[in-house]
Write a structure and sequence with these properties.
5-stranded antiparallel β-sheet, alpha+beta, Immunoglobulin-like, 496 residues, 40% helix
Length: 496
């Protein structure tokens, strides 16, 4: 029997006799299907037991180290100025005794290459080590959650507080938490801008309410980003915004150390706190779910490797604590490789597989680039010279005091003294018989500055054939012979 699913058929398309007509039910106006899953609030536990686990201590060590460097570095003084300052307006980067100019972009390129190779190497060896221990998102989320726990309490208290009706106590705790968050975020934004604007001057401008528009914008922008990412979005940044989570698998292989759950040992899981009380046939997993409760992204590591896992190893510390209490061997959740789980490698075998060809190649290239950069910085001459020919006068004939005809070329030397002390330089020329400097041979350049020096070079007219001739211009510091630059250019003879 035929079925026609249309209550409004035309006369030509009317069903035949005996056919069943199934009417379409009207759709409710408020029936809306959302394409966005509402975020499920995550309440990670700070620790299991009375003390922090090994990996949690490592994470807090990196938090302290990175934040001491970040917040403290702009306040260090070096040679009567800020020790580390990226002065974009003056186009100078001050890094302790090193002053970098736009011409030193090669050093920045080398640093970026080192960062990329380090990421490849560390990921190939130990998975998402950067994400779990040193990523700013991880570090500031840890700081913000620490503040949250101090004001609202640990996991159970925060869950109860969020479910409780609004009252004076709840409002005070919530307001206090966000007030501290905002203060930390603004201080973070202030410190960030302090790397590009002298931080003491910036602080004085803020206190005097005379801060510039762009400086204020970046303080607020970076502060807002810190507050939003670490306070509100948290794991959503890692799960949805960070591209690293998506392409990390391209850098993994079966010998990469990742946080794993030993399914063969742990399954089937079941309750039972002590090893002697566990029924026969059960694995070592006591199904306490503490590994899920401590996870900052809310995943269950027992479901296998997931892109949401940031490699913080909090689940390892939680599981080891439970195994210790239950009298079972630690390491049910641990750093391991896919091959070590399937082929049951010993610890020595696991370590040997770490030093595989991919890791050796990454390490060799990385060490080579680091060595090249260190050598280049060590051998760097703090003097840069650009020789620019005077386009208005290519070559001209002049007469000296004795009436002899000379050929003169005019140049302009763009001299950059990249040190932080004023220096006196001498200039010499060579390459053509009788070639001399007709202008001042000695000049001074202030510290960390550029000076334009006119240079007139002369040679006997009868000793310079028509055409172009290669000459050398040597500039040397009078107080330090090691600071010298050799520049090649051309000297033009007179046309016949």
């Amino acid at each position: 029997m035929n079925s026609v699913v249309d209550p409004q058929v035309t006369e030509a398309a009317r069903p035949a006799a005996g056919a069943t007509v199934i009417p379409i039910q009207p759709v409710a106006e408020d029936a809306v299907e959302s394409l966005y899953a509402k975020r499920k609030e995550i309440y990670p536990r700070a620790k299991i037991g009375d003390t922090l686990g090994l990996f949690q201590r490592w994470r807090w060590a990196t938090v302290w180290i990175t934040q001491l460097v970040f917040y403290g570095l702009p306040w260090l003084v070096w040679n009567d100025r800020q020790a580390v300052l990226f002065d974009l307006a003056a186009r100078k980067f001050y890094i302790f005794s090193l002053v970098l100019w736009p011409q030193d972009i090669i050093y920045l390129t080398a640093l970026l290459i080192i960062a990329a190779l380090s990421l490849f190497l560390f990921t190939a060896v130990g998975g998402r080590l950067w994400c779990g221990y040193a990523c700013p998102q991880t570090v500031y989320t840890e700081l913000f959650m620490w503040i949250e726990r101090r004001i609202e309490g640990d996991r159970a208290k925060r869950m109860a507080l969020d479910k409780a009706p609004w009252g004076l106590s709840k409002a005070a705790r919530k307001f206090g938490k966000h007030a501290v968050w905002i203060a930390l975020a603004l201080w973070t934004g202030f410190t960030f801008v302090g790397f590009f604007t002298p931080i003491r001057e910036l602080g004085a401008e803020i206190l005097a309410l005379a801060i510039g528009g762009w400086s204020l914008f970046w303080v607020l922008f970076y502060g807002f980003a810190t507050y939003g990412n670490a306070g509100w979005m948290r794991e959503q940044v890692c799960k949805y915004m960070c591209p690293y989570a998506r392409f990390q698998s391209a850098m993994f292989d079966k010998d990469t150390l990742i946080i794993t759950y030993d399914t063969e040992r742990g399954e089937p899981r079941g309750k039972g706190s002590k090893s002697k009380d566990r029924p026969q046939g059960l694995g070592d997993c006591v199904d306490c779910n503490l590994c899920v409760q401590v996870c900052p992204t809310g995943i269950d590591i027992r479901n296998g490797l997931q892109y949401e896992c940031i490699g913080c190893a909090a689940c390892i510390d939680a599981c080891d604590h439970v195994m210790d209490k239950a009298g079972l061997p630690k390491g049910l959740v641990r750093y391991a490789t896919t091959n070590s789980l399937t082929q049951h490698f010993s610890t020595d075998g696991l370590i040997k597989r770490v030093f595989r060809p991919r890791v050796i190649v990454y390490t060799t290239i990385l060490l080579s680039v680091v060595a090249a950069l260190a050598t280049a910085v060590y051998l760097r001459v703090p003097l840069k010279v650009d020789v620019i020919r005077d386009r208005a006068t290519l070559a001209r004939e002049v007469i000296d005091d004795r009436g002899a005809a000379l050929v003169e070329n005019v140049y302009r030397l763009q001299v950059m003294n990249t040190t932080e002390q004023g220096r006196t330089y001498t200039v010499r020329v060579s390459g053509v018989a009788g070639l001399v400097v007709a202008s001042e041979q000695t000049f001074e350049v202030p510290p960390a500055s550029t000076k334009s020096i006119p240079l007139r070079v002369q040679a006997p007219a009868d000793g310079v054939p028509p055409g172009s001739h290669r000459i050398a211009i040597d500039i040397q510091a009078k107080d330090d012979p090691a600071i010298k630059v050799h520049e090649a250019t051309t000297f033009l003879g007179l046309r016949p």
